[in-house]
Design goal:
Largest sheet: 25 strands, parallel
Number of helices: 7
Shape: rod-shaped
Strand content: 35-45%
Low-confidence stretches: 7-20, 459-532, 554-563
Structural class: alpha/beta
């Protein structure tokens, strides 16, 4: 008979298993059961059995059986393999990443091919960070980062900045990186899908930069104060009869200000009647590198400005189509609407090329406006390069080039209309322009610098001629600098010409005695007429060079007194210099 001794507790053999980290308990289900069973044996069964010899013998046999099983189990168990399998499962589900991230106090990043893949994922938890490789497809330009969080009552899921997930209690919030790329909001950029909502959303968020693609927009994009739009020269295609961008203020109390638009490429050629940019009631807005082509419809415009101060438009091109009528490159106007922002002051326009529009630059200043500058403009095939109307003191035009391949039509370089324009013109070059400068106002026109006109001979209403071309049309007054020749009595029917700092002035050979009045400034004046009048300041001296043999000075013409020359009737010798001195504004005498 087997001697039955009291059983000793054997749970200690599993102490090593009991010390395993809690994170691995889920993989040791059988061991945990054994531990529990051993504890039950130690604390309950063994004390009871020790009081019963038969039970002890039976229990000892069972114990040996269990011990054999346990020994064989652990001898055959590959713990590392089991751990590796579990880690693989946790890594695939994302659980391992989150555990490690929480331990290191960092956010792990879960990558998905598209937003649709992220939406369908079932391994996202509150706090997960996601990276998409594209919005609609990999590498479509819409790659972005998102933070997963719980939904709150104020959330508006727009599928742009807030994305719904498969777990309805969670959303993915776009991590906004400035400037904003509309492709990360869901824009297609394929030139045909309507991307208006995505571009407008990006504008509302403050700063936009396009990266790739072309963008069709079904409606006008509204810029906001202090917003920035960098088009990166990507095509923007407005719908038919729509304006691509508008910047609209609301009077002096709510102007649009400090908006920046640059590298804008508006394809108005795609849809009939579409326009470029409309700006109204604003201050300190800046535009650079603006390309608008090709205006496609009657009465369309490239850039329209209404009211406002200190705008800058720098570098660009506006292309029209002369098969249509009323197209305008720059349409500039002020209104008398009583909102306190009617004036237009200190606005600068420079470095633009305008082609094939009826009006290159057209102004209509209803209220008095001050200091508008147009620098370095080129015009090609425009009926009116500048059409200036209204009240503006002054308008400065510097360094303009105008050309027309066929001068058969009436074409105007600088057409000045109305009663309130005062223009300052410097350095002008025109080719085949019939009327390079046409002043149809009672105000002064100031001309300075090198002005050249070539091509088909011009027929201005009023001429000032340089070496071989017409400079200015004017019915009234001019301020001139440098070298000019004045000829043709019909072209100088009225007006006074003030020659400032001239090196040489040629008085035309058919000028009537009361037609032209030159203020000398110690320079040489060429006399090619019989009778002419000079005005000057008291004490000023000038030289006159004679050309014709029958030139003479006299105190009257046809019996009427025009005593510019004081009491002298003198026949002048041809090809000679005569020195004169003013003793009063309209009185002068010959001196040795």
């Amino acid at each position: 008979m087997i001697k039955i001794e009291k059983l000793n507790p054997f749970g200690r053999m599993c102490i090593s298993l009991g010390m395993l980290p809690s994170s691995y308990k889920e993989s040791l289900t059988y061991e945990e059961q054994l531990l529990w069973f051993f504890k039950y044996l130690d604390e309950t069964v063994i004390p009871t059995v020790n009081n019963n010899a038969d039970a002890v013998e039976e229990l000892q046999a069972l114990y040996l059986q269990i011990k054999t099983y346990v020994d064989e189990y652990f001898n055959n168990l590959d713990v590392q393999e089991e751990i590796n399998n579990k880690l693989d499962d946790m890594a695939e589900s994302g659980q391992l990443t989150d555990i490690i991230a929480q331990y290191l106090q960092l956010a792990g990043v879960l990558a998905y091919n598209t937003v649709a893949d992220m939406k369908a994922a079932n391994n996202l938890v509150d706090g997960s960070i996601c990276k998409t490789l594209g919005y609609h497809s990999i590498n479509d330009g819409g790659d972005a980062y998102y933070k997963v969080r719980e939904v709150i009552n104020t959330d508006v899921v727009d599928e742009m900045t807030l994305i719904a997930l498969s777990d309805e209690e969670l959303i993915a919030e776009l991590i906004i990186l400035y400037p904003i790329n509309p492709l990360t909001l869901g824009a297609k950029g394929d030139g045909t899908t309507d991307d208006y909502n995505y571009l407008q959303k990006a504008i509302n968020l403050g700063s936009v930069k396009l990266t790739k693609g072309s963008y069709y927009i079904s409606n006008t994009l509204n810029m906001l104060s202090t917003s920035i739009f960098d088009g990166n020269n990507r095509p923007i295609i407005p719908a038919a009869n729509k304006t691509a961008f508008q910047l609209i203020g609301n009077g002096v109390n709510n102007p649009i200000t400090n908006t920046v638009m640059k590298n804008i490429n508006i394809m108005t050629s795609e849809n009939a009647g579409s326009n470029g940019i409309y700006l109204k009631d604003g201050y300190f807005n800046y535009f650079e590198n603006i390309n608008i082509q090709t205006l496609n419809g009657d009465n369309t415009f490239g850039i329209k400005i209404e009211n406002g101060f200190n705008h800058v438009f720098r570098n660009g091109r506006i292309l029209g189509d002369l098969t249509f009528t009323g197209q305008i490159g720059f349409d500039i106007s002020s209104t008398n609407n009583g909102d306190g922002i009617e004036n237009m002051t200190n606005n600068l326009y420079e470095n633009f090329l305008i082609q094939r529009t009826q009006y290159g630059v057209k102004t209509n200043y209803v209220t008095t406006c001050n200091v508008s500058e147009f620098n370095n403009f080129g015009f090609s095939a425009c009926d009116y390069c500048y059409y200036l109307d209204g009240y503006a003191l002054p308008i400065s035009i510097r360094n303009s080039r105008m050309e027309l391949s066929n001068a058969s039509n009436d074409t105007y370089g600088i057409y000045i209309k109305g009663s309130g324009i005062r223009a300052y013109i410097e350095t002008l070059n025109a080719y085949n322009i019939k009327y390079p400068i046409y002043n149809d106002t009672t105000n002064d026109v100031y001309v300075n610098g090198t002005c050249t006109f070539t091509g088909t001979p011009q027929s201005p209403k009023f001429n000032i001629i340089t070496s071989n071309g017409n400079i200015v049309n004017n019915a009234y007054m001019y301020y001139l600098s440098n070298v000019y020749n004045l000829i043709s009595s019909s072209s100088l029917a009225s007006g006074k010409f003030y020659a400032n700092n001239n090196n040489f002035v040629n008085l035309g050979n058919e000028i009537n005695s009361d037609s032209v009045n030159i203020v000398p400034d110690n320079r040489i004046y060429k006399a090619t007429q019989r009778i002419f009048n000079l005005y000057g300041s008291r004490g000023v001296e000038a030289l006159i060079y004679t050309e014709l043999s029958d030139i003479h000075f006299q105190t009257s013409t046809n019996g009427s007194t025009t005593s510019m020359l004081t009491g002298q009737n003198i026949d002048l010798i041809p090809n000679q210099f005569y020195k004169i001195k003013f003793i009063d504004t309209n009185k002068w005498t010959l001196i040795n």
